[in-house]
Amino acid sequence: MKKGYKALLEEADAEIEAITPAEAQELAARDDVVLVDIRDPRELDREGRIPHTLHAPRGMLEFWIDPESPYHKPVFASGKTFVFFCAGGLRSALATKTAQDMGLSPVKHIKGGFGAWKEAGLPYDPPTERKP
């Protein structure tokens, strides 16, 4: 293996902006900021979600960002600030670096992800997954 995930994360962390959950909550109140949840849909159902966020599954992100893609989502051409988050901050760091490399700007990510958001006692919608 030429480069593992730790090296990729180290590179990403050196080039992207990480913010705290409290800073993300402040930004989320602005009309020019979009919080982007890149977790898998099953994670949202199992763990809950931050209200008023855009769900953009990690596997589709590059396709949704690129205006030349048949899957492009216009929100990513809106000129807004995008704050990415995942469960723990690893995937969102890599996603933020990728979005930044693609030319999306400004972009940030929530250090510690949704887990840190919940630990900070910030509001979230509870899980919807039903137990058998």
General description of the model:
This protein has a five-stranded parallel β-sheet. It is an alpha/beta fold. The chain has six helices and five strands, in the order H-E-H-E-H-E-H-E-H-E-H.
Question: What topology does this entry show?
Answer:
Blueprint: H1 5-15, E1 18-19, H2 21-28, E2 33-37, H3 41-47, E3 54-55, H4 61-65, E4 81-85, H5 90-101, E5 107-110, H6 113-119
Parallel strand pairs: 1-5, 2-3, 2-4, 4-5
Helix pairs in contact: 1-5
Give structural attributes.
single chain, 132 residues, alpha/beta, five-stranded parallel beta sheet
| Structural class by sheet pairing and helices | alpha/beta
Report the portion of residues in β strands. 5-15%
Helix content: 25-40%
* Shape annotation: globular
The count of strands amounts to 5
| Mean pLDDT metric | 96
- Along the chain, the helix and strand elements come as HEHEHEHEHEH
How many helical elements? Answer: 6
Strand order of the main beta sheet, please?
1-5-4-2-3
In short:
The protein is of the alpha/beta class and 132 residues long. 38% of the residues lie in helices and 14% in strands.
